[in-house]
Amino acid sequence: MAETGVALGFLEEAEHWLLQSHQFPSKVGGKPAWLSQLDIPSLPELACGKCQLHTAFLLQVYAPITGQDISFHRTLFVFCCKTPDCYSRNDSRCLKVFRSQLPRKNDFYPYDPPSDEDPNWTERDPCVHSSGVKLCKLCGCPGQKACSKCHAVSYCSKEHQTIDWKHCHKKECCKQVPSSAVPSPFLFPESELVTEPEEHQKEESSETVGDAQNNVECSSSVDDLAETELEDMAMHETEDSKVFQKFKQRIASEPHQVLRYCRGGSPLWVSSEHVPVEKDIPHCSCGSRRIFEFQVMPQLLNDLKVDSPDASIDWGTLAVYTCADSCDQGNKYSSEFIWKQDFTEQKSECT
């Protein structure tokens, strides 16, 4: 079959050494494998725009641009808040995205690529980056607050120090014991993110009848609504059903996809509501416009193990937009733009 130009992302288990910075990984969860070793994002850059708490590392995508030397190595990092109340409908302030890129000849990595077969590399202190920057033992982001007792580990905030103290450091502090291998409660489960091209599927007959019935069942009593209001509602529901049906049909052949990558393409929306127009996407700090690069799918939420009977973090899809020129910011991490779209309320109630 012909390919669509979209790369689909799936999760796979991988040995930990394959997910370290020098392997230029794409991955979900765990601690970030920072690309540039200088000017790493920290608080307040990583603070949630709503509750101001530290966001958690969600995923990173290694996405070099062929033919552009300044982005021979290029990785995009996405962070999200873990506070369910911050996930207001179609509100993106609980999310952060950063871009880091380097030329092939740089101060941090060898000119030739590393072996993907030999794990015999020097294991560094996980609390100290190779550049000498101290990293938070809990989240892997820059942290200058050392434990006042052992001075052996650092944290980015008092909050993370408290979490780690209760989790494991209370047992380890000032004792000659190795750090606990139990996963941090702050981190998401770690997996490698692998991609494969999406293939065109044969057009299938429309199945909107079932969706229309669901919409009828989910709609409230409308006896008292004016006829014009009924017409407007019907038109909106029809358009939204078409968009949602297109979404379901497009992912049906690969239901476990957690990411769709197509730089310069278009997102696959889950709803006709809250779709950005050009003026909604701010230009890069360099002045260039931003273009769509990839989207995070709702299927990822199942793998993050965040479902709960009460409120939980949630999204329909997350669309990431980056500088069209992928401008050169040196070793700095450039803040990019992310747009959160949720399912319509009726879809949420009916599914």
TrEMBL record:
The keyword Zinc applies. Pfam families: PDCD2_C, zf-MYND. Keywords: Metal-binding, Zinc, Zinc-finger. The keyword Zinc applies. GO terms for molecular function: zinc ion binding. Residues 136-173 form the MYND-type domain. Residues 193-213 are annotated as: Disordered. InterPro entries: PDCD2_C, Znf_MYND. It comes from the Eukaryota. PROSITE patterns: ZF_MYND_2 (PS50865). GO terms for cellular component: cytoplasm; nucleus. Gene3D superfamilies: 6.10.140.2220. Coiled coil: none annotated. This is MYND-type domain-containing protein. The lineage of its organism: Eukaryota, Metazoa, Chordata, Craniata, Vertebrata.
